[in-house]
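Please fill in the sequence for the structure shown.

STRUCTURE ENCODING:
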């Protein structure tokens, strides 16, 4: 069976996503319900969600275009589509991951997540003051500096809080640290077809939709687009994908197949 993944929605790397491996310790046995059945961790799901500040009611993120327009946060040029994730994979904040593990598909939930299970409490020690000279040497374009703007100093991401008298104050807390979050979400699809599960993992890990997947028994052959040869990250991504395929799908041999078609040459006339 072969399948193309051109129609698989792109995985959304949003503000709500964070690797939280520590939270996942001891969670191997969790399951998610779907159509009256249970599935082990590793279920690949499509989720529509809205994320709010639980205290203010302000919307932070949404996968739904109509919700974005309703709250006047619609972004032209952005594609609003469900998030795709792997249950128990540690890609989500701990509180969301825990709730998903007990959820039913096609059921809407609304619940709150305290800071300790989201992005943590605010830490005053992560607010630091540096010289303006250090700030100016660290940013690519000093003209883009503004209070509240993100900055990167020495490989650390923060927000510029103050700039005056030759000094700058940087807040290295996560922007949502100390915030109680409110999620409204629905698991709209659980990917069950084996080839589609492979295709979806490929999409999630590479952002590409031009692979082809074919199974022979437990072995899988993945035909690569010829343009991937120019992707500098592919060599690393390939080994990461093999681990993901074996962890979540228990496939046998994984074959990456390259096909280089002859380039068409225009006929010369006269």
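FILLED IN BY: designer on duty
SEQUENCE:
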């Amino acid at each position: 069976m072969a399948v193309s993944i051109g129609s698989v929605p792109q995985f959304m790397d949003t503000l709500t996503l964070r690797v939280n491996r520590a939270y996942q310790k001891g969670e191997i046995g969790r399951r998610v319900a779907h159509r009256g059945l249970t599935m082990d961790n590793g279920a690949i799901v499509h989720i529509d969600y809205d994320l709010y500040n639980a205290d203010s009611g302000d919307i932070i993120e949404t996968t739904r275009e109509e919700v974005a327009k309703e709250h006047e946060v619609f972004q032209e040029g952005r594609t609003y589509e469900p998030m795709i994730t792997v249950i128990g994979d540690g890609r989500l904040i701990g509180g969301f991951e825990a709730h998903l593990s007990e959820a039913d598909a096609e059921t809407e939930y609304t619940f709150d997540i305290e800071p300790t299970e989201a992005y943590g409490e605010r830490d005053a020690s992560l607010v630091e003051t540096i010289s303006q000279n250090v700030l100016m040497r660290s940013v690519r374009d000093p003209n883009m500096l503004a209070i509240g703007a993100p900055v990167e100093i020495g490989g650390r991401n923060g927000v510029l809080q103050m700039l005056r008298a030759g000094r700058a104050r940087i807040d290295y807390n996560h922007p949502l640290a100390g915030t109680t979050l409110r999620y409204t979400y629905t698991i709209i699809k659980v990917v069950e077809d084996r080839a589609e599960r492979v295709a979806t993992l490929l999409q999630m890990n590479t952002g590409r939709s031009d692979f082809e997947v074919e199974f022979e028994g437990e072995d899988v052959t993945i035909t690569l687009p010829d343009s991937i040869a120019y992707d500098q990250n592919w060599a690393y991504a390939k080994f990461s994908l093999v681990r993901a395929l074996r962890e979540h799908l228990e496939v046998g041999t994984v074959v990456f197949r390259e096909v280089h078609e002859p380039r068409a040459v225009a006929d010369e006339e006269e």
